[in-house]
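Hi there, hope your week has been kind to you so far. Would you mind checking whether the C-alpha cells look sensible for this chain? I owe you a coffee for this, so here goes:
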Amino acid sequence: MRVEAKAHRPPRGRVNTAPIAIVNIRLREFEDAGSPARAMHSVLLGYYCSTRPDDLVYIDAPYAITNTQAADLFRAGLETRLQVLDKLPGARVFIFVLTHSEESSGDLFWDSGLSSDSLNDWWKRMIPDKLMMAGAKHDVTVALLSCGSLVEISTQRETLKMLAQGMQVQRVIAFGAHAVQAYFTSSFFTCYATTILIEGVFLNDTHFARLLQASPLLTRHSSVLLFTRQDSSKGLLHVKEFRWGHPTIQPYGNALPLQCPMCGRIYTWAFKAGKNGEQRVRCNGPGCGYSFQYTKGADQIPIRSGELGTWFMRYL
C-alpha cells in the first residue's frame, strides 16, 4: 500500500497553554510599559485571552525602598498578590528582576542611587516566601535584568547561584554587559515565550543560541549567562556563558581596542585569518604596523553560526 498524502502536524498540536505567571519586580524608575516582562506577557496574550484568561497572570511589582519598613510592606504586599499561585497548580513562573547593580560590588539597588549592602540582604528583604518556595510546586525561571557586575564578579555569581538553588528554580538568565540595556532583551524573551513556553521546545545549548541569534541587539551588547540544573532530580545549578564572536568585530568574543596603543590612531585595524584559526589584527596606520592576534579559548565551544557571527559557550 502506498500513501500519497502530505505529513502534516497542525501547529496547535504542540501548543502548551498550561498556566503561566509573570512577576515583574522592578525599580520604580523603570517603566512597566515596554519592559521585557510586559513584552513577554503581550506575546502570550493571544494564546490565553479568549479561551483561558485566568491562566495567564501578570503581577507588576514596582519598588522604591528607603527603609526596612518599606521593604517589609513591599514584601507583604507581593506575598498577598502571589496567593493566586495556589489556584494555578503546575504553573510556569517567570520572575523578572529589573534594577541596577552597584558597579564595584554587584549588589542590587533599593532605590535610585541607593545600593544594598549585600545580595543576600536584598534577596531576603525583597523576595517573599511564596516565591522562595515556588520551585517546590512550579517550574520557576528567574531573569536578572541588572548590570553585569552582578554576574561578572565571581563571588556574586556564586551567591546568586546559591540563592537560586535555595528557591529550587529550574534556571536563571542574566547578562554580563557593563551597562545592560534591559530593553534590548525583549526580543529574546518574546522568542523564549513562544518557543519554550508555548511550543514546548527543549532548552538545550543549541536552541538557547538560536534564541540569541534571533536577538540581534544582544550580539555586540552583552554576554548571556544561563544557570541550569546539572541533574533534573537535584537542585544544583551549573553556569554557562554565551558570548558572541565575529571575525572582524569581536574575534572569539573579545572586544577590540578602540585605539592603537602604539600610534594612537582610532580603529585602524585590518584583519587576516591565520592557518590555525587565529585571527590576526594589524594597525593600518602609516608607519605603524602594530599587530596582535586572538585565538579561540580551549574552553570555548562554538554553538550557533550564521551570517551574523557565532555564539560561543563555556562553563564558568
